[in-house]
Each structure stands twice: as C-alpha cells, then as structure tokens.
Amino acid sequence: MSSGISGNRGETAPIAGGATVAARRYWWQSPIARRRASYGYLTILPWIIGFLAFTAYPIFASLYYSFTEFPILKGPSWAGLQNYERMFFQDDLFWHSLRVTAVYSLVAVPSGVIVGYLVALILNQKVAGLSVWRTMYFMPSIVPAVASAFLWSWIFNSEFGLVNGFLMNFGLRGPKWFFSEEWVLPAFMIMHLWGAGGGLVLYLAALQGVPTTLYEAAKVDGANVWHRLVHVTLPMTSPVILFTFLTGIIGSFQIFTAGYIVTGGGPRNASLFYVLYLFRTGWNYFQMGYAAALAWVLLIIMLALTLLTLYASRRLVYYEFSEEGK
Amino acid sequence: MLNKGLSRRLRRRSFLAGLGAMAALPILAACQPQVVEKVVEKVVEKPVEKVVTQIVEKTVEKVVTQIVEKEKVVEKEKVVEKLVTVAAGPKKMTATLRFSSWWGDAFNAWFPIVEAKTGIKIQYEPLAWGEWKQKLLTQLAGGVAPDLFQIDASENGVFFPSGQLLPFDDWLKKENIDMSKWSLDPRKENGFEGKIMGLSIITMVDAIVWINQELAEKDGLLKDAPTWGKPNYDTWRWDDWVKWLKAGTKVKSDGTVEQYGLDASFGTWGDFVRVFVHQNGGSIFDDDWNYKETKSMVDQPAVLEAVQFVNDLVNKHKVAPTPDAEKAIQGGSYRAKRAMSTMNWSSAGIYPEDKFWPQSYIHLPYSKNKTHAAGGNYISVDKASKQIDAGFHWTTQFCIDEDVRKIFLSFNVPAYDPLAIVGSAPEGQGKTVALVQLSRIKGMSTVPKNTEGVIEYPRWYGSKASGFVQDTLKFAMESVVTGKLSVKDAFTEAKAKIDAELAKKK
Questions:
Q1: Which of B40, B49, B347, B355 makes the best surface tag, with the fewest CB within 10 Å?
Q2: Within 10 Å of residue A34's Cβ, how many Cβ atoms?
Q3: Which residues of B touch A158 (CB under 8 A)?
C-alpha cells in the first residue's frame, strides 16, 4: 500500500518521516474479538429485545401518536400539528397545569435540597445516636407514595388533623389545606419536604468524602465555620447537590400519585399537576393523541431545564478530578 | 312407550291419550326441526346428539298429557314450544371464556353454578374498581380483551359507540327469553341505536336514606318519618326532609357539630348530586338517553335549584358535614355514629345490621319527581371473541338463572325477574332493602301506587365528551361548595365549556 499501513495484526508500518506506529485495527477485524463480541451481544439480547419492545417502540409510537387524533378505541388518524396548536393556543388547562407544577417545583425542589443538605450537615457531626437519627430522617423517603399521601391527608385534615390541632393550642384556626385553593400547594410542598431525607445518603457520602486536609488547611488560614462551609464543603459536595437538584426537578415535574390520591387535582384544579392533567386527558377523556403530545412537551421542558441547569452549573459546580481541576 | 300403552286393555282415557299423541306427532315433527336446528346451530362441538334426544323424548311425554286435557291443536303448538324450553334446560357447550370484573371474589360463588348448567368454564380476571376502565380499554385497543367483561353504565358513552361490543338481540330472540321480566327494558338501559349491548346483572340501586333507629328514636324523629312499611312511605318532599334533618342535627355551645342529621358527600359532582337534578325535572343534556347530545342544559333553573338545594344542606342548613369534615372520619360520620342518617345506595351490604345497628329506610325525598336511575352493571361480549355463542349463552344464563339470582340477593338485587327472587327471600334487612329498591319500579314494586309519576334517568353522560363533562361539573360543584362562585355563575360557565367541547365533536 502506498501509505505503508498494513492491515496485518501486530505489524508495524512505516509512515512519513521514518517513524513507526502500531497499525490501528478495529475489533471486528479480529475473528476472536468478533466471536467474543457476539457472545456479549447474545447475553444481552434479552435486554435489547425488552428495550426495543417496551421502551424504544413506545417512545417512537408516542411521538407518532402526538401528531394524531387518537380516541383509544377508534385508532389514530393523522392530525398534523393540531394537538400542539390546541395545547399552546386553546387549552387553558395546559397552561394552568404547567403553572401549578412550575410553582410547586420552584419551591419544593430548592427547599428539598436545602433541608436535605442541612440535615446531612447536622448528621455528619459526631452526635449521640447518629445511626438512629440517620434512619429516622431517611425513612420517610422510602415510605410508598400512596401511604404517604394518605398519611398527609390525615395530618392536614382541617377538622381533626395534627397540624390544625397543634395550631388550635395557640388559639389559631388552621387553614383547610387540601380543601383550600390557596393552601393546597403549600400543603403538597410541606409533604414533599418530609421526604427530603432521600438525598441524605448521597449528601453524607459526599460530605465524608471531603478530605480533612482541606479543612485543616482552611483552619490554618483562619477560616471560621461559615467560611469552611462556603469555601470548602459546598464546592467539594457541589456535584452531588447538582445531581439531587436535577433529579429533583425531573421528579417534581412528574408529581402524580399524591395529587391523584389526595385531591384528584382539586379543589377547582388548584392542584392539577401536569402529569395529572396528562393522565386525565388520556384516561378520562380518552384523547390519546393529545395526551402523547402533552408527554412530549413535558420531555422537552425537562430537557430544557436540565440543560439550563447544567449550563449554569459550569460556574457553580466544582469537579475535583475534572480537566480544569488537574 | 306408545306401543306398550296400546297392548293393554283400551280405555277411553288411554284411547284419547293415544289419539292425542298421534295428533301431536305431526305437530312435533313440525316443531322438531326448529328445535334441532336451534340446538345444532349453537352446540358446535360435542353434545348435539345427546341434547336432541333428550328434548324429543321429554316433549312427547308432556305433550300427550297436555293434549288430553286441552284438545285444541292451535293451543298445543304453543304448549310444545314452551315445554321444549323448559325440558331442555340450558344447552351444554364446551368452552372456556375469559371474563373480567371488579366485583372481586363475589363471582367465584356463581361460576360453578353456571358451569354446571352450561358446561362453560370461566377464566376469571379480577380488576380493581379504580383501574377497570383503563385496563379494559387498553385490552380492547390491543385486541386482547376478555371474551366477556363487566361494564359500569356510567361509561356507556365510551363503550357503546366504539363498535367493540356485540348486540344480544338476535340471541335473546332465538332463546325466547321473556324480556318483560327485566326490571328495566334492556333496550333502554343498555341500548344503543336500538340494539342491546349488554345484559344487566343488577337492578340499578337507588339513592335512599338509611336511618340509625337508635339515634332517631332518641329524639323522637322516627315515628313520623315515612319509613318503609308505613302508610306514608315515600311521601316526603325536600322541605319535609330538611326540617327533619335540622331536628336531627345537634350543635354544641362552642359551635362544633356533635351530630349531623345527614351524612353525605356533596363536595363534588357525582351520582348523589345528579339524582336531585332529575328529581327537580332537570337534565344534563338536551338528550340524556340516546348518545346524541348537542348541548348542555346545566344552566337551566331546574338544575340550578337542585344544586342550590344540595349546597344549602351543607353550607346553609348545616345538616350535612363539609367535605373535609366528612373525610376526617374513618368510614364517614354515619359509621362513627356522628350522623343520624345517611344517603347511600340501596344495597344491604353497605351497612349490614349484624355489623352496625338496627336501621330504617326512606326513599330519597323529592321535589317534583320521584326518580329511578337506569344503568347499573352489565356484561358485554367482545366483538373480537372467538367464542361468541358461548359468550352469549353464559351471560344470558348467568343473568337469568334462578340459583344464581338467589345467591345474588345477598349481594344485590338481580336485574331479571327480581321480585320473584326478593319475594321468596327470608325476612331480614336484605329483603327489606331490596323491596325498598324495587318500590319505585313499575311492575316490580310491592306498593304499586308508589310507582306513579316515577321518572327514569340515565347514569351516563352522553357519548361525545363523557369524562370532560363530568370533570367540568365537578369543577362547577367545587366552585359552589367552596363559595368561590354562585350556583348560577358556576353552572353557566360549565355549560359554556361543555357546549364548546360538544361543538368540537360534531
């Protein structure tokens, strides 16, 4: 060959300038590697089939359905951009549900991250009964969503609930919480905070991974507790904070169970979260095409928020072993 | 058998019997092909021969007797037809059908009975009430639905126009089912474009008032109440009822309610609100029955008055708990003995006396019309089923079989010939509630006078936007109960939304 690069295994090839490099070969050029790869693919074949049938196909099918009118028992018929047009220009409930979900996320996610992080900071100290406290804070996050929804509907009951009962001791008459248009979202936000311990494990792992040498060095430099928190702890644990924040956003935009069980979207649609509206459109109104369009818009919103967060995090998140950190 | 008879000494009676039998043979011969044809057509697999033989033999014996007694050929033909049906019993078939329902284990008691009579086995697929609709629709859309499935009439508008259900008409006609025995004409209750799309299992329950005898008696409120069995039964109007409920509501000095007159959930729209609308002469659409609605009527005075009445029970008269107060009590105020009475369905299983307390019953007081709801639960046959005849056969047998219906009574009142079953039931709460339930149905009531002026209303919400309509009415009702909007504003707004949605579906 004029270039001097041969395809034979193990051979070296002269190149311009007289230097030699090992010939670059791809795995499929080797019979042994091909055989090994085929075994690999064979063993993951069940997963591939499952993925194609139960994940990839539904994803692309729903994309197609989003451009159709699809009353469930009559099959889809092409409708072009009609569903999207309706969504953005005619459907007040779309905007309403988006607003409800955004308000909820805007408060619930940051507060959940802050509370979870603060609890982790406290539980990272040497306090008595540490394992008990850690278990107690983490436990709510593993309570099934349905059980949690029922529990909180009782706690926030306006007549006999724990919260209003407590307020009554101070002569205060509590709000109607889940039965009040004004208080239903705050009630869901508080309910969300109860599960803030879910990120505890991650935060604790991150906190314990901060080298003590950094704290010692900061102390030597005269840093107080606040300085150490802001300049050492937060930067060193920021990747985990970013992770919980991102998953929190995605989770909060998908809130469904609590709303479905406790309020069904009421009163007067005050807790009509986006996914609840999507479900209602699909399974109460049987407009599968429109429901699919709602789902795709949700995906795009979450994708945009994720990218935005990642972009913003470039200046806020510190990666100890990143290219920049080297 | 006839030869044996002739070999004996010929008596006048025997001679006539023989003559009758001979006369009957041509009739039988004329009738026989019809019977055989019917059986062969349906019993595709094994027992054709057996069934035919059985029918012919038994028919001959009985016809002979009839002829001797009546001596009229024209009448004999009718007798033969009837006897064939009775003597043959349900046909036997070999089939296994898939069947889904949300009634849980209740069906397990009935399957063996129907199987013993039809030979048809059931592969049961229980569903949860909260998911039956979603699951069944998904199955139908995917072509994997059960052969038979239970449907709640509130969803008629979704299932009937879909073309996925098979009409029963031809089958019922072929089987000579006495259609006058249904508590409500199936064409009305489960009909779509003149065809019967399913067979009702139950007579639709009515909303009635259950009274805790102990609490009502304590305040002397039981003696004048128009409870079941009294001459003044079912005579109360709304005003009478409100007075009584007020007398049964007890408020402490600090303003907290110790006992409500009525336990009911009026926080949102539902069956228990709709009944008042129809009592008051209102309707949801311009055509509530035929799935051809073009506009909503929820802004009409009859509807507004009814909604106002319901709202007043909670917010003005304060005789019923607010939705959150009601939700706070496990099982509701009535179960907790914090309400003297409750509005609930006429189904004895809801508050069984052996687990609760002695109770009395009044039918729901009315304003203009006494009402009875149409559309309970029914069974339909999937169009895609490969065992259609077996599906029709099993469903029909299940609905009309006496043994099934007798057991059924402990659960609910059957839809087919209910009074015969209820009447023969042992005395007790089950029978009483069942009689209350039938008391407004013409031809089924033991107090026929009580059926005068009763109007029926459907439980479904049209075919074009059933779910949307219900959600819109819920929103309107919540606006009223929470005091955000007046009844007029809330329901005028609801009408506009519903009409706009219906206009899209034209």
A1: B355
A2: 12
A3: 324-325, 328
